[in-house]
């Protein structure tokens, strides 16, 4: 295993490195989301079919992508925690869940706002929408299970198993529009294909997606640093750090 993998197991090292990375990611998130929002809402041309209502994609698509990506991050952290017994992986899983839940809520809410003028209804039991709703329930289940078990090690193992079992829902979300006859349109971005939208429409969307990834990094690092301090509060380096801050 490379050295950095074992460094990730050190709460002290993670706390120090996240402190150095936070400012850069925060600035990147702020700039990318600001530019993408202004460009998408004010300067991108209206869609030839949906008019200006399509502009909700500049919030809906990034939040939907992030809700799925965060769950994948939790699954990786859960697998690492179960196999290598790394408590930092357990902390990452725990800290990801509330962020993913909020982004899943945003994805569903913005999808409903988009669906009303497009489909004539706030909600339909479409395969993509239903699987996204299941994803939200999985996030809430992870949060509830973690809170219900007093032992942190037992809670970490239980939530990791739940996350890994729920991983089957991710390909269902991704390929639901291909496997079933759904109202939801196909993916806006595909790595293997050229975007169907003109560059002045997809470029601000790309900025928003990257900006939301940077925002997730910031939110995760902030929550992770608090979790490290809580769990390591009796460690000597934490006491020294708190003394330095008070002094």
From TrEMBL:
Cellular component, GO annotation: plasma membrane
Molecular functions (GO terms): heme binding; heme transmembrane transporter activity
Gene Ontology annotations of biological process type: cytochrome complex assembly
Topology within the bilayer: Multi-pass membrane protein
Lineage summary: Bacteria, Pseudomonadati, Pseudomonadota, Gammaproteobacteria, Oceanospirillales
Domain of life: Bacteria
UniProt keywords, alphabetically: Cell inner membrane, Cell membrane, Cytochrome c-type biogenesis, Membrane, Transmembrane, Transmembrane helix, Transport
Main location: membrane
The keyword Transmembrane helix belongs to this UniProt entry's keyword annotation: yes
TM stretches of this protein: 21-44, 64-84, 96-115, 127-146, 158-177, 201-224
Full protein name: Heme exporter protein C
């Amino acid at each position: 295993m490379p050295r950095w993998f074992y460094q990730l197991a050190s709460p002290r090292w993670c706390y120090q490195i996240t402190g150095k990375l936070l400012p850069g990611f925060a600035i990147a998130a702020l700039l990318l989301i600001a530019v993408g929002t202004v460009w998408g809402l004010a300067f991108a041309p209206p869609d030839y079919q949906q008019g200006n209502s399509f502009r909700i994609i500049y919030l809906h698509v990034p939040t939907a992508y992030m809700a799925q990506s965060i769950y994948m991050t939790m699954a990786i952290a859960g697998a690492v925690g179960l196999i290598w017994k790394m408590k930092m992986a357990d902390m990452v899983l725990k800290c990801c869940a509330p962020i993913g839940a909020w982004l899943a809520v945003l994805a569903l809410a913005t999808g409903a706002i988009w669906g009303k003028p497009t489909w004539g209804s706030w909600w339909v039991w479409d395969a993509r929408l239903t699987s996204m709703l299941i994803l939200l329930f999985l996030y809430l289940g992870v949060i509830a299970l973690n809170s219900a078990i007093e032992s942190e090690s037992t809670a970490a193992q239980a939530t990791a198993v739940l996350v890994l079992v729920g991983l089957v829902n991710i390909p269902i979300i991704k390929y639901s529009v291909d496997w079933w006859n759904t109202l939801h349109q196909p993916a806006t971005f595909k790595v293997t294909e050229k975007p169907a939208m003109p560059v002045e429409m997809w470029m601000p969307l790309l900025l928003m997606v990257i900006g939301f990834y940077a925002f997730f990094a910031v939110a995760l690092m902030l929550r992770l640093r608090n979790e490290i301090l809580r769990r390591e509060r009796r460690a000597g380096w934490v006491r020294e750090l708190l003394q330095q801050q008070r002094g």
